[in-house]
Amino acid sequence: MVMDEETKVLRDYLMFTVPHVTVLAGAILGILMIIGVPVNVALGIFAIVYGLMLTVLGLVIRPHVSGILLYRLSMAFFVGLVVVGAVILLYGG
Q1: N or C, which end of the chain has less CB nearby within 10 Å?
Q2: Cβ-defined contacts of 22-31 (< 8 Å, 24+)
Q3: What is the mean pLDDT of each successive set of 10 residues along the chain, which is 93 residues long?
Q4: Helix (H, G, I), strand (E, B) or coil at 93
């Protein structure tokens, strides 16, 4: 299976940026839990921050990979994560 250039760029983006963002968002969640923020509020904040960071990274790479279906699905997931975080904060907190 031969990958085109756009797919390689998307693969490299996912491999090298998403783990770093995950660690940062996880650290924020850990700090919120340590300082005693209620679990629902901490998870809502985590989901919003994580989704926003991933969305910003996705928007940065958009000119290179906007034609790939996987990119569109991942952006929908990232925005959905922000929405889920907002729902958790509104109804669960």
Answers
A1: N
A2: 22/50, 24/53, 25/49, 25/50, 25/53
A3: 80 90 96 95 96 94 87 94 96 77
A4: coil
